[in-house]
Amino acid sequence: MPLELTAADAARYRLRSQRLAPRADAETSAPELLASVCGLQAQEKPAAALGVRARSESLTEADLERALYEERSVVRTWCMRGTFHLVAAADLPRYLSLFGETFASRGPEPKRLESMGLDESDIARAMELIRDALREDGPLTRAEIAHRLREGGVDLDPESQAPYFLVRRAALLGILCEVAPKEGQMAYDLLDQWVSVDDPPDRQVALVDLARRYLRAFQPASMDDFAAWSGLYVRDVKLAWGLVADETTEVRIDGRPAEMLTEDLDAYESGTVPSNVVHLLPGYDSFLLGYEKENRPIPREHELSVWPGAGIIRPTLVVDGEVRGTWKLDRTRATPAVVVDPFERFDPELEVPLRTEVEEIGRFLGTAVELRLVD
Fold it and tell me: Measured between alpha carbons, how far apart are the two ends of the chain, in Å?
């Protein structure tokens, strides 16, 4: 018989899978942490940094900056779902081999570029020009790349989204990656000049490894959850999931089938997360984005409070793995404040762990932070 779990059971265990409870200890480096959770979504870099904070008891914002720009052991680039992520540099060959070609020409961007007067031959020319420009003068900002493209004969409007789309495609194709800011602006350089990139693994090997890593980071989870998180084509999702089937055991979450790695079942039985665990997760956090919509830990009546539209995903107050409210970091005051807005009346018993979370945000940012609880 499959192990029967409630949604609350599953949510608490997913905190463990995502290194949220318990957090990674002081011996775990930023790249090791990111590798263990399959990266963190990072279209807003400050939010991604706070995602690291939520998963580590010791790392600071300065540690992450050092890993990004001095050690170069962490890279911010496009991969899963074709979106920005913070990933361990050592994982780039695997991710780019699976997501690069898939998302470089998939989605609305090709049609948008075509509507801007850029066909596939223009785009191919742009990729070569970007490579040459960075080889000669990198790192370059997006504006500088746009200028070089126009000089090379690619007719684009530098004020349009075309430079962004072309930089994104170049990143997915493994040409460039984001590097240290240049004069306060995001900058890019040749990927193989910034980090050492190994040859990509065999595609089938990479798919199996991805499915196994995904489960360890998000279990219990279903194949549909894996599809939603990865964005891969259905054929790849089914192949990867099928190839790890002999390593998994079926569980049921309120009657819905899911999977766990068999070797981790003992950890579930012996290490469930205690109750009244409070987290302040940043916007766009992987704890929400690692599953299909039906399996996200958000009460249906409050979904619009977290997902208000226009691609926005707000920071969340999470208690025992379930979203119970939203929050924001107010930096307009002399002392920054974490403003917490619960969906319902806040349980006074949770105030101590909530204040601990606020103090941890201050530790990570290296500044005093106060709590403001919306009545």
Answer: 46
